[in-house]
Write a structure and sequence with these properties.
The chain is about 70% helix and about 0% strand. It is an all-alpha fold. Strands 1-2 form a two-stranded antiparallel sheet.
């Protein structure tokens, strides 16, 4: 299996197919369980779907990304990836709780801040340079860390807010993960590339069910949209930091 890491394109293709396959296998079972337990989104005057549709797609996404990272990411070479998984774990359970039983907005916000702190302070993943935006380059660590927390929480909730139209949030995530994954792969950051393509594969498979009218139609739910926003914000910060021009 180790030889696959010597062929970047083959590795990317394998991760996409692997994650897509796992997600596609999990969703029908989740749909059945959700309908049995009545964990569904029912149509009302603010929705356009007909019938009751399960909104626990984030469970399949979380399981797929987590399994893929644990199996294929070398955490000795990508230490901050482990902190990303820890933060994603918190965000996922916030979303699941909100999908099943409405979560207090302040508790949800506080949980997102804690997840962001894990990445920023413990994982040392934060914005240290604005690359000339507003004429600003290098940032003091404290300023960069605070800005990063605002960025992570803001983008996480932004993706959550656009998850009102079938396929919209997933499409944004797929496009972003393709761009990040391709760059990380070409630049030799294999761990980050694996996470990027895991996001791409899992959300692509999910989109198939989300956009269909079959009995297995499923919504992303807060768990899935929060994971997506959190993941993209992490990858975006890594991308910005790895592209700092030498002085």
């Amino acid at each position: 299996m180790q030889y696959i890491y010597d062929y970047p394109i083959l590795l990317a293709l394998f991760i996409v197919l692997f994650t897509g396959g796992i997600t596609a296998l999990l969703i029908p079972s989740l749909v059945s369980i959700a309908k049995t337990k009545n964990l569904v989104s029912k149509p009302n005057n603010r929705t356009s779907h007909n019938g009751s549709v399960p909104s626990l797609g984030g469970i399949a996404i979380f399981a797929t990304i987590g399994i893929t990272a644990l199996l294929f990411v070398n955490f000795n070479q990508c230490a901050y990836c482990s902190f990303f998984l820890a933060g994603m774990f918190i965000v996922f359970f916030l979303g699941v709780k909100d999908d099943i039983i409405a979560l207090d907005p302040y508790k949800k916000f506080a949980g997102q801040i804690i997840a962001a702190i894990i990445i920023v302070f413990f994982g040392q993943t934060y914005i240290s340079n604005l690359h000339g935006l507003f004429g600003i380059y290098e940032l003091a660590p404290t300023v960069g860390m605070l800005l990063s927390i605002v960025f992570i929480v803001g983008l996480t909730n932004s993706i959550n807010l656009i998850d009102g139209i079938d396929g919209l949030a997933a499409s944004v995530g797929i496009m972003a993960s393709i761009a990040f994954g391709a760059w990380f792969l070409l630049a030799g950051h294999t761990g980050l590339a694996i996470i990027s393509f895991a996001i791409m594969g899992s959300y692509t498979a999910f989109a198939f069910f989300n956009l269909s009218d079959s009995k297995n139609k499923m919504f992303l739910g807060d768990s899935g949209s929060l994971i997506l926003g959190f993941s993209i914000s992490f990858l975006a910060i890594q991308f910005m930091e790895l592209n700092i021009a030498p002085a």
